[in-house]
Task: inverse folding
């Protein structure tokens, strides 16, 4: 790790004004950038940033610390039931919040299953959404891959056990954020702040980008913008949600496959609306749209849940070593649909 300067921002706007590059841009230009032009980057919890610095993948001239800014912390509820989660709210706080556990159970569950207790107490929601993919070729200083400005994706001919099975043309990363899977199922929006003070809200589905749109980044965050909050729309009483994942280890491991399901079940037992999002499956959280369509207007039971699981695999293009993800994803969708439809809104339910 190279020497760097440290600065505490006095406000979110000051942080946005100081930052010169996104982490993705810093990784893209690192190899040919002289020290006088090196990036000034923002740091929140620092979990991913310090990993990248230790591996020599980013070499910032200065880190701007926002971790103590109170206005970026905490969970607040609007009069209409909508929620604002500050970008510095930790995953541990999200997992433990009683209101979230009731109204947005899938999000609380996803946060609780992220990383380890130690990391959850440090990692922030904003940092988790903005972390770089965990592809070992991207994270290797010895591999100048497409995402870092090189000319080759090493995963296609290399070890692709944990890579994408959807939208994996050109680059086969999977998005590393566990909460993002649940947030997309709730139709969340992110709040972005420009240094001049302008704020914009962007649907999470539009915030993430696929390799076909931009090979070098995972989101539309611009240099000079910082992510300040995540907004969640109010949930109606008949909405139920759940998050499931499968990992090689129960603790401190990224999922092999994951799913978040939100369903609206009416008094007659019919599904009025469904949102199904797959995690660890694509370069961005992946909407299983055909499965959603199949459930709308249907009674949820074993056969419809099974059909939804199969429909969720539409368009999959597995690689040589990761086709095992398909039956995992189908089974998780089936289980999650049945559980969300049958269980009360309690994240502790099995």
Result:
């Amino acid at each position: 790790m190279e020497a760097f300067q440290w600065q505490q921002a006095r406000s979110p706007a000051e942080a946005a004004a100081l930052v010169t590059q996104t982490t993705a841009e810093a990784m893209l230009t690192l190899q040919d950038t002289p020290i006088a032009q090196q990036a000034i980057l923002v740091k929140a919890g620092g979990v991913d940033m310090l990993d990248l610095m230790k591996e020599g993948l980013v070499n910032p001239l200065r880190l701007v610390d926002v971790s103590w800014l109170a206005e970026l912390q905490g969970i607040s509820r609007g009069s209409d039931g909508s929620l604002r989660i500050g970008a510095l709210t930790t995953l541990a706080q999200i997992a433990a919040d009683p209101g979230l556990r009731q109204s947005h159970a899938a999000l609380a569950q996803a946060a609780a299953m992220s990383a380890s207790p130690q990391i959850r107490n440090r990692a922030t929601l904003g940092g988790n959404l903005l972390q770089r993919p965990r592809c070992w070729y991207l994270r290797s200083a010895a591999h100048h891959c497409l995402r870092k400005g090189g000319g080759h994706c090493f995963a296609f001919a290399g070890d692709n056990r944990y890579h994408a099975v959807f939208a994996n043309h050109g680059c086969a990363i999977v998005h590393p954020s566990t909460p993002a899977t649940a947030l997309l199922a709730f139709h969340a929006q992110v709040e972005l702040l420009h240094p001049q003070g302008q704020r914009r809200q962007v649907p999470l589905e539009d915030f993430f980008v696929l390799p076909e749109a931009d090979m070098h980044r995972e989101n539309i965050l611009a240099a000079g913008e910082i992510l300040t909050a995540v907004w969640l729309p109010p949930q109606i009483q008949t909405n139920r949600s759940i998050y499931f994942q499968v990992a090689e280890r129960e603790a401190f491991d990224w999922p092999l496959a994951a799913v978040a399901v939100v369903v609206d079940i009416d008094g007659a037992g019919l599904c009025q609306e469904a949102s199904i999002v797959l995690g660890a499956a694509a370069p961005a959280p992946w909407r299983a749209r055909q499965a959603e369509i199949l459930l709308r207007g249907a009674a949820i039971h074993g056969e419809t849940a099974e059909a939804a699981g199969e429909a969720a695999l539409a368009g999959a293009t597995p690689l040589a070593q990761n086709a095992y993800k398909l039956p995992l994803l189908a089974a998780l969708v089936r289980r999650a649909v049945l559980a969300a439809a049958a269980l009360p809104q309690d994240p502790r339910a099995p």
Summary: DSSP finds 13 helices and twelve strands in the chain. The first helix runs from residue 12 to 18.
